[in-house]
Amino acid sequence: MAKAKKSWEKRLSKQTDGLAVDFVESLSYDKRLYKYDIAGSIAHARMLSEQKLITKAEFKKIEKGLSEISDEISAGRFKFDKRLEDIHMAIEEALVAKIGAAGKKLHTGRSRNDQVATDVRLWMRDEIETLRNKLTGLQKSLVEMADKYDEFVMPAYTHMQRAQPVVIAGYLLSFVECFERDYIRLGNCRDLLNVCPLGSGAIAGSTLALDRRSTAKQLGFCEVSRNSIDAVSDRDFCAEFIFDCAMIATHLSRLAEDWIIYASNEFGFVRIDDSFCTSSSMMPQKRNPDMLELIRAKTAGVYGNLVAMLTILKGLASGYNRDLQEDKIHIFSAGDTVGASLDMASAIVLHTEFNTKKIEAELGEGFLDATSLAEYLVGKKVAFREAHGIVGALVAYCEKWGKKLCELSQEEFKGYSERIEPDVYDSLGAVNVTRKYVTEGAAGFGQSQEQIAYWQKRFAER
Ligand code: ARG
Predict the structure, then answer these.
(1) Tag placement on the chain: N or C end, fewer CB within 10 Å?
(2) What is the tens place of the pLDDT at every residue in 3-46?
(3) Does the global pTM surpass 0.85?
(4) Catalytic residue among 159, 275, 281, 409, which?
(5) Using a 6 Å cutoff on CB, does residue 52 contact ligand 1?
């Protein structure tokens, strides 16, 4: 094999040991940064020519060479040599091989330290856009589903016990809220990271008159970093990005958990389409929600990425340390995992139906209307604490005699409170109760419809 030409071969007397080559390389995973690396290099070279540090002609050669390399990589024609360690050196070496002397000027006033910090930020800006689009896609699917079920009631649970009736739409829209916060969080992360470290060099900047504002502007950054020592070692945005991914994964996992339960025979609330189920190699009757289980499990990996990223950062001495190379393993993995889970979740939402007949048939179970009855009594001037006690006693009575609250007679009610009148029946039964919710943001029919309209408008503007 030909010798890989590394820029420091005059400094180190020996070739890197084979074991060390494998251990130190990041090319196998950072090659996916190539577009950003090339964009950064073109901006840097243009700035060098503006500053007369290289000639216009040299810049043109560099630009042409780099764009050819870009085409070669995207067409799969580029030969990656791991002895060059990373994508930065692989591209630089290919450029020198291609255009000769001018290529050797590209790295003027630059270090891989500010280079990689720039590349990662550029990558992350795009990745955030991709994830935000996927989030919007999932939100749209949920809103579409909510629209379909805006007249159907289901039980809501607290402590996994039947609590109060809600519109199915309201339940679905609760997740749209979670994903909206994720959408905003990612936007905040992007705004905070959109600062250009290029020109910080290895740690101290440069004695050459680089125009940092030019490269920053060319690359679409809002500002240049203020402090070169911080700029080359700052990976706060990586930890933050992974946290945002972890939060998305958490929300996806909770949705998955709900639907795994809802798809069980015991609940039977939802039916996931066959095309998104698996069966059992032994039990012929099975329809398993494996996709949802995997969405739930993949969350663990993203949490792992977050803990790993934070742990990489916590022991670092000031300035760049090679530890930072491993940031990419975790940001890529978190982004990839969450991207795939978002796609899967959107597809499942589009291929799932609520079994409204079964849900409705069981709405009488579990005294979903008990709170409504207590609030009815408040309307009849009974103190809430007293009302709570009265209804508690009524529920115990019903349980004893196997009745529902709406099945009790006036006489039976009067035995517990004189204030209960014939109009009480409007406040009983899950559907009646759901009609009575008046607070803003409640899980009632009107509120859900308002929320659906709100989201449809929002998405149209997005
Ligand atoms: N591959 C390295 C990384 O990803 C590039 C920076 C290496 N810098 C250095 N001075 N060794 O962090």
Answers:
(1) N
(2) 677 777 778 888 889 999 999 999 999 999 999 999 999 999 99
(3) yes
(4) 159
(5) no
